[in-house]
Design a protein that fits this description.
alpha/beta; 402 residues; TIM Barrel
Length: 402
Amino acid sequence: MYNIKLNNYIPTPIPAKSDRIIAAHYYAAWKYGAAGLHKGFNDLAEVFPDRTPLMGYYDEENPEVCDWEIKWALEHGINCFIHCWYRKKENENKPVTVNDLRCGHGLHEALFNAKFNELMKFAIMYEVSPRWGGTNETDMVKNLMPFWMENYFKRKNYLVIDNKPVVFVYAHKTLASYFESVESQRETFNKCREYAKAFGFDGLIFAVCNVSLNEESHKEMIERGYDFRFGYSSGFNPEYDNFEDQNQIIAEQCNILKNQLEIDNKRFIPTPSCFRDTTPRRTEYWRSISDYDFRWEKIWYLSPEKYRELLEEFKNICDKLPDDAWAKKIMMIDNWNEWDEGHFVAPSHKFGFKYLQAIREVYTERNNLPDYIAPHDQGFTGYNKSWIEPDFKEFCEKELNK
């Protein structure tokens, strides 16, 4: 029965029920030529075949590709994608358009045109770094908020909690540098909340990526106007490469979470990490295009079975928190599709659906039966039109001959 197209379109997902928001970080940098900083799947190709997505090197801007991702995520309990949102540097202090975004295709071309898009919640994580565009007191209210409101917050499937859209922020130090003071940033955030109220919301929720185990740092985040803190990962980073003690990896991640909750048990949410392997970003090629040295991030793995144990530990910790704790409402998954940075739960040739199965088994009612037949086995093809003849041959030969 394989390779026979029995359906005209992807079978409709049957979501696994969960008692909380399970949000996976989503890095939409895989449209051919879109990333700018790196070469997308060309950085992987023949050199790192274990990083191959289950559907192959795909056209990320294709809404049908997005529908497969929505289906796989929902059937395993992930009910929200948090998209990394980049504004081009030259757009600072100007009105924002879709053309002013880096990797905006993940939302504007793929998700918004996907058949199943309203089944999947989404949110944006404003990526502020010296390389990408920031904002300030005037620009945030005048330029960012109108774009965000019209393009995201008003959509039925944007992540809204207590009638307040949620905005995640990465690189808080860089964003802070754009404001004159702590008070100025807080006042600007409050103006954004008032702006949202004019459109029928009860305000706006700002969450900041900050895993500092420091009470003063946490206090500053609150003073700047953030509602809670989170991590892009759990914060675990061992002292040496190829750290193999998986029980210790679980214990250390749990200790990090417990220490964060000791600082404030209501305003921190967990981000359990499955593994970290930045090997592709340690190559000579990557070091030539980036000022970031990934060699300080050590390589380690949790097996899917051990990842399930970690999820169970995190759930047990968070279930004991006060009812108004953010960690009882939402948890994050590290990560859906960081293929080259080396942490992903999306279906791959190396791991199949195993990490997703762990999430489903721990965080859902398992009320459904997921579809584990790969797209090409069901007759669905043509998802890699831009990658069908990739130009990575010379790069691959260079890396393999080192």
